[in-house]
Amino acid sequence: MATVSAKMLSPSGSNLSASKTIDTEKRTRLTVTRNSNPWIYSNYPEAIGKNGKGLALAENGYFLNQQTISGTAEVFYSHTNYTEKKLYVGIQAYNGSSKSVTVTCQNYGDSSGWNKSINAVKNFFSSKKTSVTIASGKAAWIATSQAIPADPSTPFTGMCRFETSGSVVVTVYAYQSTSAVDGNAVAFPYGLSYSADKSINHTYPAVYSGKGTGYYLTFTHGTKYVSDLLSRPYIYTSNAQGGYGNNNEMIPIKMIQGGLTADPNSSNDDLNNLGNWCAHNYNTITFKNDTSKTYTIHGYVGSTGTCQVMNLGGNVQAVNLIDKLKTWRWCEITLAPNDTCSFDWQHIVASYGVGASSHEWSVD
C-alpha cells in the first residue's frame, strides 16, 4: 500500500474536450461550511456610466462600497466601464481610532477586459504581501488597480484579502484621479434603473454592493472508493442555485442601502441574483483503490462558459471555457491496489457573466 499524489493537468490539448459531458442529474448534493470573515462585495452599479446615469465615481462624490472591518476580510469587485475615460479602483482604509492601526494586504489581483478575468485570480495567488501603518485620523490605500481602459463596456474585476490590527473603515472607490478621493463620498444611490442596461422588454438582473459573511467555503467530499467509481462517477456542482445548489453555499449580501439583503432564497426576483463569483471553494477528498487492479482517476470541471481556476498545492491553472461544449480534465491520479490519495485544492469561478460549475471524478 502506498500514498500517492494528485497530478495537475494543464487546460490544453486533449485535456479540453468538446465531447465530454458531465451528467449533473447524477450529482451529489453537499452541505458546505463557510468561514465567518466578512466579504466586501462590490457589483453595483455594474455598468458605471451607462446611459450617462450619475457616474459612480469619487469625482462625483460616490464610493462603491464601505464597511467597518476589524481582523481579516476580503474584497471582491466587478463592474464595467462605460465612462469612455480611463478609470482606476482603489481600496482605502481610514483609522478613526486613537491608536495607530496596521493593515496588511495578504493577496491582491485585478484585471480588465473580456476573457481576462482569470488573470485577477492568478495575480491574487502570485501577489506579495504588503503592509501599511495608519496613524489616528488618517487614511491609506490598501490596494490600487492598474489602469482600466477607456473603451466602452470594458469589464474589470479584482479581489483583495487583508488583515487589520484594529478597527478601520474600508472603502472601495472608482476614480479617474486619486485627488478626487477626499473622504466625504457617499454610497451611489440604489435603484434597479442603475443596475444595468435595458433593452426591449428586458431588464438585466439586479446587482449588489454590500457585505457577506464567509468568502471561504469548504467542500468535504470524504473517501471515494474505486469500486464505487467503476459503477458510477462521483458528480457534484458548485456556484449553483436552486435544485442544483448545495446546502449553505450561496453567500447572502447585506446591501449598503435600504436595509435589503440579497439572498438566493429570496422570493423577490430582484434580490436573488447571486453566484459566489471569486469566492474560495476549498475542497478535501480521499481516493482509495479497494480492487485488485491498477486504475487511473480523472477529475473534470465543466460549465456554460465559466472562467475556471484551480489551485492544487500552489500550482495554479486556469481556463476560460467560452466554448460551452468544452470540459477541462484537470486532475489525474493513478492508484495501484490498496493505494490511497488524499489531497485538497481551491476552485474559484472568476467574474463576468458566469454560471454554475459541474465536477466529476471518474475511472478512465
In total, the number of strands is: 29
What spatial form do the alpha-carbon principal axes imply? elongated
User: Helix content range of the residues, please?
Assistant: under 10%
Distance between the termini: 21 Å
Mean pLDDT: 92
Radius of gyration: 22 Å
Oligomeric state of the chains present here: single chain
Low-confidence stretches: none
**Count of alpha/pi helices:** 3
Helix vs. strand class: mainly beta
Main sheet properties: 9 strands, mixed
Sheet-strand content, in percent, reads over 45%
Structure keywords:
364 residues; mainly beta; nine-stranded mixed sheet; six-stranded antiparallel sheet; 5% helix
Protein architecture, described:
The structure is a single chain. With 364 residues, this protein is mostly beta strands. It has three helices and 29 strands. The chain has helices at 117-126, 192-195, 226-231, and strands spanning 7-8, 16-17, 33-34, 38-42, 47-48, 62-63, 65-69, 72-81, 88-94, 101-112, 130-134, 139-144, 154-164, 168-175, 186-187, 198-199, 202-203, 209-213, 216-225, 234-238, 253-255, 261-262, 280-288, 295-303, 307-312, 315-320, 327-335, 340-349, 357-363. Strands 4, 5, 8, 10, 11, 13, 18, 21 and 22 form a nine-stranded mixed beta sheet that branches. Strands 1, 2, 20, 24, 27 and 29 form a six-stranded antiparallel beta sheet that branches. The mean pLDDT is 92.
